[in-house]
């Protein structure tokens, strides 16, 4: 895959790469020897990188991908799976306690008020596929393969991995994907509505960057509100809380709300009469 944009790398990470260019952040899982399976450390670093991208006002779109062209992500690293989760090398792990911290990352991607595009080459499997389902858009290479493995390897994701997938591809298809653990080509994934487009592997980054640039031309607040609105329905009260927070942010930006703040600071009665009581 040739690079179509001058990525600038920053930060010190062992399991991921964080890069930015032209208002786009690219976050790459960098464990190609395990088909980019994640371990606790990978997830800590991903959470940090997504936070950096969220806080960077220069960044409008995030591309999430895996290193190399063999895998986007193959899910939890089964080689370090203990009896109650994944065993890292942090203080918690030293007490023999496992972690299931991919769930935090899923929520973070859903809540992040900027579009996240999954750029998928090769395997998108298990918890890796759940991550691409959580992303706003997915651009796949023609060598991509998608699937869940839970009932084969002794795991399942009953959260976003199940019901968000069902919302995305329909209940019957979601059951088939999970119950039978089959693998699906990029074209099949496109046909079932699990991804947005398929391109030749050589064009994957060019196409993804082109989608990102198109997004950057759009109103950031409109994109933020649409992401919140679309996710609010399936995220229930938590989704509404996020959407309501955005409504508060917009209200703060109005003269009407600022009048309340200013009146308090100036120790006077607020003059709300000057604002219309809208129909
Ligand atoms: C992807 C597969 C089908 C590719 O097969 P292929 O092409 O034949 O390659 P391999 O030779 O198998 O793989 C190349 C090397 O990569 C290693 N590797 C691949 N996947 C993993 C993995 N997930 N963990 C560790 N290593 C992996 C291979 O072992 C090989 O290296 P060597 O030769 O050195 O051994 C095939 O690789 C495959 O089926 N992989 C396993 C896919 C899988 O089952 N993933 C885990 C599914 N479960 C989860 O993701 C957990 C879900 C989850 O995270 C979660 C959900 C809800 C609540 C909590 C959690 C939580 O656990 O946190």
UniProtKB/TrEMBL annotation:
<feature type="binding site">
    <location>
        <position position="267"/>
    </location>
    <ligand>
        <name>substrate</name>
    </ligand>
</feature>
<protein>
    <recommendedName>
        <fullName>1,4-dihydroxy-2-naphthoyl-CoA synthase</fullName>
        <ecNumber>4.1.3.36</ecNumber>
    </recommendedName>
</protein>
<feature type="binding site" description="in other chain">
    <location>
        <position position="86"/>
    </location>
    <ligand>
        <name>substrate</name>
    </ligand>
</feature>
<feature type="site" description="Important for catalysis">
    <location>
        <position position="252"/>
    </location>
</feature>
<feature type="region of interest" description="Disordered">
    <location>
        <begin position="260"/>
        <end position="279"/>
    </location>
</feature>
<keyword id="KW-0456">Lyase</keyword>
<feature type="binding site">
    <location>
        <position position="252"/>
    </location>
    <ligand>
        <name>substrate</name>
    </ligand>
</feature>
<feature type="binding site">
    <location>
        <begin position="148"/>
        <end position="150"/>
    </location>
    <ligand>
        <name>hydrogencarbonate</name>
    </ligand>
</feature>
<feature type="binding site" description="in other chain">
    <location>
        <position position="155"/>
    </location>
    <ligand>
        <name>substrate</name>
    </ligand>
</feature>
<comment type="pathway">
    <text>Quinol/quinone metabolism; 1,4-dihydroxy-2-naphthoate biosynthesis; 1,4-dihydroxy-2-naphthoate from chorismate: step 6/7.</text>
</comment>
<dbReference type="InterPro" id="IPR001753">
    <property type="entry name" value="Enoyl-CoA_hydra/iso"/>
</dbReference>
<comment type="pathway">
    <text>Quinol/quinone metabolism; menaquinone biosynthesis.</text>
</comment>
<dbReference type="Pfam" id="PF00378">
    <property type="entry name" value="ECH_1"/>
</dbReference>
<feature type="binding site" description="in other chain">
    <location>
        <begin position="123"/>
        <end position="127"/>
    </location>
    <ligand>
        <name>substrate</name>
    </ligand>
</feature>
<keyword id="KW-0474">Menaquinone biosynthesis</keyword>
<feature type="binding site" description="in other chain">
    <location>
        <begin position="74"/>
        <end position="78"/>
    </location>
    <ligand>
        <name>substrate</name>
    </ligand>
</feature>
<feature type="site" description="Important for catalysis">
    <location>
        <position position="86"/>
    </location>
</feature>
<comment type="similarity">
    <text>Belongs to the enoyl-CoA hydratase/isomerase family. MenB subfamily.</text>
</comment>
<dbReference type="InterPro" id="IPR010198">
    <property type="entry name" value="DHNA-CoA_synthase_MenB"/>
</dbReference>
<dbReference type="InterPro" id="IPR018376">
    <property type="entry name" value="Enoyl-CoA_hyd/isom_CS"/>
</dbReference>
<comment type="function">
    <text>Converts o-succinylbenzoyl-CoA (OSB-CoA) to 1,4-dihydroxy-2-naphthoyl-CoA (DHNA-CoA).</text>
</comment>
<feature type="binding site" description="in other chain">
    <location>
        <position position="149"/>
    </location>
    <ligand>
        <name>substrate</name>
    </ligand>
</feature>
<dbReference type="GO" id="GO:0008935">
    <property type="term" value="F:1,4-dihydroxy-2-naphthoyl-CoA synthase activity"/>
</dbReference>
<dbReference type="InterPro" id="IPR029045">
    <property type="entry name" value="ClpP/crotonase-like_dom_sf"/>
</dbReference>
<dbReference type="InterPro" id="IPR014748">
    <property type="entry name" value="Enoyl-CoA_hydra_C"/>
</dbReference>
């Amino acid at each position: 895959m040739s690079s179509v944009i001058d990525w600038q790398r920053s930060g010190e990470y062992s399991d991921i790469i964080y890069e930015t260019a032209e208002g786009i952040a690219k976050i790459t899982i960098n464990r190609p020897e395990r088909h980019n399976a994640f371990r606790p450390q990978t997830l800590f670093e991903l959470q940090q990188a997504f936070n950096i991208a969220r806080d960077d006002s220069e960044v409008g779109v995030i591309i999430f991908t895996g290193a190399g062209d063999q895998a986007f992500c193959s899910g939890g690293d089964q080689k370090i799976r203990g009896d109650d989760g994944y065993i890292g090398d942090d203080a918690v792990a030293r007490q023999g306690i496992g972690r299931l911290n991919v769930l935090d990352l899923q929520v973070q991607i859903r809540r992040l008020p900027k579009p996240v595009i999954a750029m998928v080459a090769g395997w998108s499997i298990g918890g890796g596929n759940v991550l691409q389902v959580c992303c706003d858009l997915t651009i796949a290479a023609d060598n991509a393969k998608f699937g869940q493995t839970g009932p084969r390897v002794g795991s399942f994701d009953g959260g976003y991995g199940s019901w968000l997938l069902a919302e995305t591809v329909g209940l019957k298809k979601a059951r088939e994907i999970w119950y039978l653990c089959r693998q699906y080509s990029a074209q099949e994934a496109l046909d079932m509505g699990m991804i947005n487009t398929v391109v030749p592997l050589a064009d994957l980054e060019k196409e993804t960057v082109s989608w990102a640039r198109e997004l950057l031309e759009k109103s950031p607040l409109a994109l933020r509100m649409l992401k919140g609105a679309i996710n609010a329905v399936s995220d229930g009260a938590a989704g509404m809380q996020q959407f309501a927070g955005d409504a508060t942010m917009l209200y703060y930006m109005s003269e009407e709300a600022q009048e309340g703040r200013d009146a308090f600071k100036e120790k006077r009665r607020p003059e709300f009469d000057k604002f219309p009581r809208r129909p």
